[in-house]
Amino acid sequence: MLTQIYNGHILTPEGWITGGSVIMDRGRIAEIRKNSHLEPKADEHIDAGGMHVVPGGIELHCHGGGGSDFMEGTVDAFRNAVNTHLKHGTTAIYPTLSSSTQPMIEAAAQACTTLMDEPDSPVMGLHLEGPYVNPMKAGAQMPEIIRNPNPKEYHHLVEEYACIKRWDSAPELPGAIGMGRYLVNKGVIASIAHTIAEFDDVKAAYDAGYSHATHFYNAMPGFHNVREFKHAGTVEAIYLMENMTVEMICDGVHVPPTLLKLIYRIKGVERTALVTDALAVAASDSTKAFDPRVIIEDGVCKLADRSALAGSIATMDRLIRTAVQMADIPLQDACRMASETPARIMGIYDRKGSLQRGKDADVLIIDDDINLHAVYAMGKLVN
Question: How far apart are CA 183 and CA 210, in angstroms?
Fold first, then answer.
Protein backbone atom coordinates (compact mmCIF):
# COMPACT_ATOMS: atom_id res chain seq x y z
CA MET A 1 0.00 0.00 0.00
CA LEU A 2 1.39 3.38 -1.06
CA THR A 3 0.67 6.17 1.45
CA GLN A 4 1.53 9.84 1.12
CA ILE A 5 1.74 12.16 4.11
CA TYR A 6 1.72 15.66 2.63
CA ASN A 7 1.65 19.28 3.79
CA GLY A 8 4.00 18.43 6.64
CA HIS A 9 6.85 20.17 8.44
CA ILE A 10 9.23 17.26 7.98
CA LEU A 11 12.36 16.61 10.03
CA THR A 12 15.16 15.11 7.93
CA PRO A 13 18.88 14.68 8.68
CA GLU A 14 19.46 17.79 6.56
CA GLY A 15 16.94 19.85 8.56
CA TRP A 16 13.28 20.79 8.26
CA ILE A 17 11.28 20.68 5.03
CA THR A 18 8.21 22.91 5.11
CA GLY A 19 5.25 21.77 3.02
CA GLY A 20 6.87 18.47 2.15
CA SER A 21 5.74 14.88 1.75
CA VAL A 22 6.71 11.45 3.01
CA ILE A 23 5.88 8.57 0.68
CA MET A 24 5.59 5.17 2.38
CA ASP A 25 5.44 1.88 0.52
CA ARG A 26 5.33 -1.64 1.99
CA GLY A 27 6.72 -0.58 5.35
CA ARG A 28 9.56 1.54 4.03
CA ILE A 29 10.07 5.20 3.19
CA ALA A 30 10.01 5.34 -0.59
CA GLU A 31 10.68 9.05 -0.92
CA ILE A 32 10.92 12.37 0.90
CA ARG A 33 9.65 15.23 -1.24
CA LYS A 34 10.07 18.96 -0.84
CA ASN A 35 6.54 19.59 -2.09
CA SER A 36 2.97 18.52 -1.38
CA HIS A 37 1.92 17.59 -4.90
CA LEU A 38 -0.42 14.64 -4.58
CA GLU A 39 1.04 11.38 -5.80
CA PRO A 40 -1.54 9.88 -8.23
CA LYS A 41 -0.33 6.32 -7.56
CA ALA A 42 -0.87 6.64 -3.78
CA ASP A 43 -3.61 4.50 -2.24
CA GLU A 44 -4.00 7.00 0.59
CA HIS A 45 -3.27 10.72 1.06
CA ILE A 46 -2.84 12.04 4.61
CA ASP A 47 -2.91 15.81 5.11
CA ALA A 48 -0.54 16.66 7.97
CA GLY A 49 -2.08 20.14 8.15
CA GLY A 50 1.31 21.80 8.51
CA MET A 51 2.12 19.81 11.66
CA HIS A 52 5.53 18.33 12.43
CA VAL A 53 6.36 15.00 10.80
CA VAL A 54 9.23 13.37 12.71
CA PRO A 55 10.88 9.95 13.13
CA GLY A 56 9.27 7.45 15.48
CA GLY A 57 10.73 7.20 18.97
CA ILE A 58 13.22 4.48 19.90
CA GLU A 59 12.96 3.40 23.54
CA LEU A 60 16.16 2.11 25.12
CA HIS A 61 14.93 1.69 28.70
CA CYS A 62 11.37 0.66 29.51
CA HIS A 63 10.10 -1.85 32.09
CA GLY A 64 6.48 -2.04 31.01
CA GLY A 65 3.24 -0.22 30.39
CA GLY A 66 -0.51 -0.66 30.11
CA GLY A 67 -0.51 -2.67 33.33
CA SER A 68 2.08 -5.22 32.15
CA ASP A 69 5.70 -5.61 33.24
CA PHE A 70 8.36 -7.30 31.15
CA MET A 71 9.51 -9.15 34.27
CA GLU A 72 6.34 -11.24 33.96
CA GLY A 73 8.20 -13.01 31.18
CA THR A 74 5.17 -13.90 29.07
CA VAL A 75 4.39 -13.14 25.44
CA ASP A 76 1.06 -11.58 26.47
CA ALA A 77 2.73 -9.20 28.95
CA PHE A 78 5.37 -8.23 26.41
CA ARG A 79 2.81 -7.66 23.69
CA ASN A 80 0.54 -5.52 25.86
CA ALA A 81 3.35 -3.31 27.15
CA VAL A 82 4.90 -2.90 23.70
CA ASN A 83 1.56 -2.06 22.06
CA THR A 84 0.81 0.44 24.83
CA HIS A 85 4.00 2.39 24.15
CA LEU A 86 3.51 2.07 20.41
CA LYS A 87 0.33 4.14 20.71
CA HIS A 88 2.36 6.91 22.38
CA GLY A 89 5.05 7.22 19.74
CA THR A 90 7.55 4.43 20.52
CA THR A 91 8.00 2.64 17.21
CA ALA A 92 11.04 0.59 18.28
CA ILE A 93 11.72 -0.68 21.78
CA TYR A 94 14.22 -2.58 23.90
CA PRO A 95 12.18 -4.14 26.74
CA THR A 96 14.03 -3.82 30.04
CA LEU A 97 14.30 -6.16 33.01
CA SER A 98 15.23 -4.94 36.46
CA SER A 99 17.53 -7.21 38.47
CA SER A 100 16.16 -10.70 37.96
CA THR A 101 16.98 -14.32 38.66
CA GLN A 102 18.38 -16.41 35.83
CA PRO A 103 15.04 -18.23 35.26
CA MET A 104 13.25 -14.86 35.06
CA ILE A 105 15.78 -13.61 32.51
CA GLU A 106 15.40 -16.77 30.44
CA ALA A 107 11.61 -16.56 30.43
CA ALA A 108 11.73 -12.92 29.34
CA ALA A 109 14.35 -13.69 26.68
CA GLN A 110 12.13 -16.39 25.23
CA ALA A 111 9.12 -14.05 25.12
CA CYS A 112 11.27 -11.30 23.61
CA THR A 113 12.58 -13.64 20.93
CA THR A 114 9.05 -14.68 20.01
CA LEU A 115 8.03 -11.07 19.40
CA MET A 116 11.24 -10.20 17.57
CA ASP A 117 10.58 -13.06 15.14
CA GLU A 118 7.21 -11.62 14.14
CA PRO A 119 7.03 -9.64 10.87
CA ASP A 120 7.60 -5.88 11.24
CA SER A 121 8.09 -6.21 14.99
CA PRO A 122 8.92 -3.03 16.95
CA VAL A 123 10.90 -5.15 19.45
CA MET A 124 14.61 -4.74 18.78
CA GLY A 125 16.09 -6.74 21.64
CA LEU A 126 16.30 -7.22 25.39
CA HIS A 127 17.93 -4.83 27.87
CA LEU A 128 19.09 -6.22 31.23
CA GLU A 129 19.41 -3.61 33.98
CA GLY A 130 21.24 -5.73 36.52
CA PRO A 131 21.38 -7.91 38.54
CA TYR A 132 25.06 -6.92 38.74
CA VAL A 133 24.58 -3.57 40.46
CA ASN A 134 25.90 -2.01 43.65
CA PRO A 135 23.52 -2.66 46.58
CA MET A 136 24.45 0.76 47.98
CA LYS A 137 22.71 2.28 44.95
CA ALA A 138 20.02 -0.32 44.52
CA GLY A 139 17.16 2.17 44.27
CA ALA A 140 14.11 0.10 43.38
CA GLN A 141 16.14 -2.96 42.36
CA MET A 142 15.17 -5.97 44.49
CA PRO A 143 18.05 -6.31 47.01
CA GLU A 144 17.69 -10.06 47.44
CA ILE A 145 18.38 -10.58 43.72
CA ILE A 146 21.40 -8.27 43.37
CA ARG A 147 24.72 -10.11 42.96
CA ASN A 148 28.23 -9.75 41.57
CA PRO A 149 28.95 -10.56 37.91
CA ASN A 150 29.00 -14.31 37.39
CA PRO A 151 30.80 -15.34 34.16
CA LYS A 152 29.12 -18.73 34.08
CA GLU A 153 25.72 -17.05 34.22
CA TYR A 154 26.22 -14.19 31.77
CA HIS A 155 28.22 -16.33 29.30
CA HIS A 156 25.35 -18.81 29.15
CA LEU A 157 22.67 -16.15 28.73
CA VAL A 158 24.50 -14.18 26.03
CA GLU A 159 25.42 -17.34 24.12
CA GLU A 160 21.92 -18.81 24.39
CA TYR A 161 19.81 -15.71 23.70
CA ALA A 162 20.75 -13.52 20.75
CA CYS A 163 17.98 -11.11 21.77
CA ILE A 164 20.17 -9.68 24.58
CA LYS A 165 21.48 -6.42 23.14
CA ARG A 166 22.45 -4.45 26.26
CA TRP A 167 23.52 -5.27 29.81
CA ASP A 168 24.02 -2.76 32.63
CA SER A 169 26.27 -3.18 35.66
CA ALA A 170 28.23 -1.28 38.29
CA PRO A 171 31.86 -1.19 37.09
CA GLU A 172 33.37 -1.20 40.59
CA LEU A 173 32.02 -4.69 41.33
CA PRO A 174 34.46 -7.62 41.21
CA GLY A 175 34.45 -9.03 37.69
CA ALA A 176 32.57 -6.13 36.06
CA ILE A 177 35.50 -5.02 33.91
CA GLY A 178 35.95 -8.52 32.52
CA MET A 179 32.22 -8.69 31.88
CA GLY A 180 32.39 -5.46 29.90
CA ARG A 181 35.14 -6.82 27.65
CA TYR A 182 33.14 -10.01 27.09
CA LEU A 183 29.91 -8.16 26.24
CA VAL A 184 31.57 -5.83 23.74
CA ASN A 185 33.26 -8.81 22.07
CA LYS A 186 29.80 -10.36 21.66
CA GLY A 187 28.24 -7.20 20.23
CA VAL A 188 26.27 -6.37 23.38
CA ILE A 189 26.20 -2.78 24.67
CA ALA A 190 27.79 -2.49 28.14
CA SER A 191 26.36 0.32 30.27
CA ILE A 192 27.20 1.79 33.68
CA ALA A 193 24.33 1.67 36.18
CA HIS A 194 23.43 1.74 39.90
CA THR A 195 26.96 2.49 40.94
CA ILE A 196 29.24 4.35 43.35
CA ALA A 197 32.06 4.40 40.79
CA GLU A 198 34.82 6.95 41.21
CA PHE A 199 36.71 8.43 38.26
CA ASP A 200 39.24 5.59 38.04
CA ASP A 201 36.42 3.00 38.00
CA VAL A 202 34.62 4.81 35.20
CA LYS A 203 37.84 5.23 33.20
CA ALA A 204 38.65 1.52 33.57
CA ALA A 205 35.11 0.63 32.47
CA TYR A 206 35.29 2.97 29.50
CA ASP A 207 38.62 1.48 28.44
CA ALA A 208 37.09 -2.01 28.75
CA GLY A 209 34.22 -1.11 26.42
CA TYR A 210 31.48 0.36 28.60
CA SER A 211 30.11 2.98 26.23
CA HIS A 212 26.85 4.15 27.81
CA ALA A 213 25.45 5.43 31.12
CA THR A 214 22.06 4.26 32.36
CA HIS A 215 19.49 6.87 33.51
CA PHE A 216 22.21 9.50 33.94
CA TYR A 217 22.25 11.26 37.35
CA ASN A 218 20.00 8.55 38.84
CA ALA A 219 21.50 5.88 41.15
CA MET A 220 25.01 7.32 40.85
CA PRO A 221 26.91 9.91 42.90
CA GLY A 222 28.06 13.30 41.73
CA PHE A 223 30.67 15.57 43.27
CA HIS A 224 31.24 14.67 46.93
CA ASN A 225 33.70 14.77 49.80
CA VAL A 226 35.63 11.86 51.26
CA ARG A 227 36.47 13.32 54.63
CA GLU A 228 38.17 16.63 53.87
CA PHE A 229 38.99 15.82 50.23
CA LYS A 230 36.78 16.56 47.22
CA HIS A 231 36.09 13.81 44.69
CA ALA A 232 34.58 13.79 41.22
CA GLY A 233 31.65 11.40 41.25
CA THR A 234 30.35 9.02 38.63
CA VAL A 235 28.48 11.89 36.99
CA GLU A 236 31.55 14.06 36.46
CA ALA A 237 33.61 11.07 35.33
CA ILE A 238 31.02 10.25 32.67
CA TYR A 239 31.08 13.84 31.45
CA LEU A 240 34.85 13.53 31.09
CA MET A 241 34.54 10.35 28.98
CA GLU A 242 33.90 12.44 25.89
CA ASN A 243 32.51 9.68 23.67
CA MET A 244 30.43 7.94 26.33
CA THR A 245 26.73 8.25 25.57
CA VAL A 246 24.05 8.85 28.18
CA GLU A 247 20.32 8.50 28.53
CA MET A 248 18.14 10.84 30.55
CA ILE A 249 14.69 10.10 31.96
CA CYS A 250 12.97 13.11 30.48
CA ASP A 251 9.81 13.22 32.61
CA GLY A 252 10.83 16.43 34.40
CA VAL A 253 10.90 14.61 37.76
CA HIS A 254 13.74 12.07 37.71
CA VAL A 255 16.07 14.75 36.41
CA PRO A 256 15.03 18.38 36.97
CA PRO A 257 14.77 20.53 33.84
CA THR A 258 17.92 22.50 34.72
CA LEU A 259 19.94 19.28 34.67
CA LEU A 260 18.24 18.08 31.50
CA LYS A 261 19.45 21.29 29.90
CA LEU A 262 22.95 20.81 31.35
CA ILE A 263 23.23 17.26 30.00
CA TYR A 264 22.07 18.47 26.59
CA ARG A 265 24.60 21.29 26.55
CA ILE A 266 27.57 19.19 27.66
CA LYS A 267 26.93 15.82 26.02
CA GLY A 268 25.04 17.21 23.04
CA VAL A 269 22.43 15.70 20.77
CA GLU A 270 24.74 13.03 19.37
CA ARG A 271 25.48 11.52 22.79
CA THR A 272 22.19 11.99 24.64
CA ALA A 273 19.13 9.74 24.35
CA LEU A 274 15.70 10.26 25.90
CA VAL A 275 14.20 7.32 27.80
CA THR A 276 11.08 6.73 29.86
CA ASP A 277 12.27 4.09 32.37
CA ALA A 278 8.52 3.47 32.48
CA LEU A 279 6.93 0.90 34.77
CA ALA A 280 3.82 -1.18 34.19
CA VAL A 281 1.55 1.64 35.38
CA ALA A 282 2.57 3.89 32.47
CA ALA A 283 -0.40 4.65 30.20
CA SER A 284 -2.55 2.45 32.43
CA ASP A 285 -5.79 2.91 34.31
CA SER A 286 -4.25 0.99 37.17
CA THR A 287 -2.68 2.78 40.12
CA LYS A 288 -1.08 -0.41 41.40
CA ALA A 289 2.52 -1.11 40.40
CA PHE A 290 3.85 -4.54 39.47
CA ASP A 291 6.26 -4.27 42.41
CA PRO A 292 4.25 -4.07 45.69
CA ARG A 293 6.92 -1.80 47.21
CA VAL A 294 6.14 0.94 44.69
CA ILE A 295 3.64 3.79 44.93
CA ILE A 296 2.62 6.44 42.39
CA GLU A 297 2.94 10.00 43.64
CA ASP A 298 3.81 13.41 42.15
CA GLY A 299 3.56 12.01 38.63
CA VAL A 300 6.28 9.42 39.23
CA CYS A 301 6.84 5.97 40.78
CA LYS A 302 8.52 5.87 44.19
CA LEU A 303 9.39 3.31 46.82
CA ALA A 304 6.67 3.45 49.44
CA ASP A 305 9.11 4.70 52.09
CA ARG A 306 10.03 7.53 49.68
CA SER A 307 13.71 6.62 49.90
CA ALA A 308 14.12 6.52 46.12
CA LEU A 309 12.39 7.02 42.81
CA ALA A 310 11.42 3.69 41.29
CA GLY A 311 10.63 4.48 37.67
CA SER A 312 8.37 6.67 35.61
CA ILE A 313 4.89 6.68 34.17
CA ALA A 314 6.09 8.56 31.09
CA THR A 315 5.60 7.73 27.43
CA MET A 316 7.60 8.82 24.39
CA ASP A 317 5.41 11.82 23.59
CA ARG A 318 5.88 13.12 27.13
CA LEU A 319 9.66 12.87 26.80
CA ILE A 320 9.71 15.13 23.76
CA ARG A 321 7.20 17.53 25.32
CA THR A 322 9.21 17.80 28.54
CA ALA A 323 12.46 18.41 26.67
CA VAL A 324 10.92 21.22 24.63
CA GLN A 325 8.57 22.86 27.12
CA MET A 326 10.49 22.44 30.38
CA ALA A 327 14.14 22.26 29.35
CA ASP A 328 13.97 24.69 26.39
CA ILE A 329 15.54 22.15 24.04
CA PRO A 330 14.71 22.85 20.36
CA LEU A 331 12.12 20.46 18.93
CA GLN A 332 14.53 19.26 16.26
CA ASP A 333 17.10 18.23 18.88
CA ALA A 334 14.52 16.66 21.20
CA CYS A 335 13.22 14.51 18.34
CA ARG A 336 16.74 13.48 17.34
CA MET A 337 17.49 12.45 20.95
CA ALA A 338 14.33 10.33 20.89
CA SER A 339 15.11 8.65 17.58
CA GLU A 340 18.45 9.20 15.84
CA THR A 341 20.71 9.00 18.89
CA PRO A 342 19.15 5.82 20.31
CA ALA A 343 19.38 4.23 16.86
CA ARG A 344 23.07 5.09 16.62
CA ILE A 345 23.78 3.84 20.16
CA MET A 346 22.20 0.48 19.40
CA GLY A 347 23.59 0.14 15.89
CA ILE A 348 20.27 0.21 14.01
CA TYR A 349 20.61 3.61 12.35
CA ASP A 350 20.89 1.92 8.96
CA ARG A 351 17.16 1.15 9.17
CA LYS A 352 15.65 3.36 11.87
CA GLY A 353 16.05 6.73 13.60
CA SER A 354 15.53 9.19 10.73
CA LEU A 355 13.20 9.94 7.85
CA GLN A 356 15.23 8.85 4.83
CA ARG A 357 14.56 6.89 1.70
CA GLY A 358 14.85 3.15 2.23
CA LYS A 359 14.46 3.24 6.01
CA ASP A 360 11.59 1.77 7.99
CA ALA A 361 8.48 3.94 7.76
CA ASP A 362 8.28 4.82 11.47
CA VAL A 363 6.68 8.25 11.54
CA LEU A 364 5.00 10.55 14.07
CA ILE A 365 2.78 13.55 13.40
CA ILE A 366 2.79 16.07 16.27
CA ASP A 367 1.47 19.59 16.71
CA ASP A 368 3.18 22.70 18.08
CA ASP A 369 2.20 21.75 21.65
CA ILE A 370 3.80 18.32 21.16
CA ASN A 371 0.49 16.51 21.14
CA LEU A 372 0.58 13.27 19.17
CA HIS A 373 -1.84 13.12 16.22
CA ALA A 374 -0.69 9.97 14.42
CA VAL A 375 1.78 7.11 14.75
CA TYR A 376 2.91 5.03 11.79
CA ALA A 377 4.95 1.92 12.52
CA MET A 378 6.45 0.23 9.47
CA GLY A 379 4.02 2.31 7.40
CA LYS A 380 0.91 1.15 9.23
CA LEU A 381 -1.27 3.53 11.23
CA VAL A 382 -1.32 2.60 14.93
CA ASN A 383 -4.87 2.82 16.27
Answer: 9
Q: What is the third-level CATH fold of 57-346?
A: TIM Barrel (3.20.20)
Residue ranges of the domains in the chain?
2-53+361-381, 57-346
Q: What is the DSSP string of 115-129?
A: HHTSTT-SB--EEEE
- Paired sense of beta strands 245-249 and 229-231, if any: unpaired
Q: What is the pLDDT of residue 348?
A: 98
Distance CA 319, CA 114 (A): 28
The kind and range of the H/E element at 381 are strand 380-381
pLDDT at 317: 98
Rounded Cα gap, residues 109 and 48, in angstroms: 39
Question: What confidence tens digit (pLDDT) does each residue in 329-354 have?
Answer: 999 999 999 999 999 999 999 999 99
Task: Show the low-confidence residues of the chain (pLDDT under 50).
Answer: none
Fold observed for domain 2-53+361-381: Urease, subunit C; domain 1 (2.30.40)
Calculate the CA dihedral of residues 314, 319, 322, 327 and round it to 10 degrees.
130
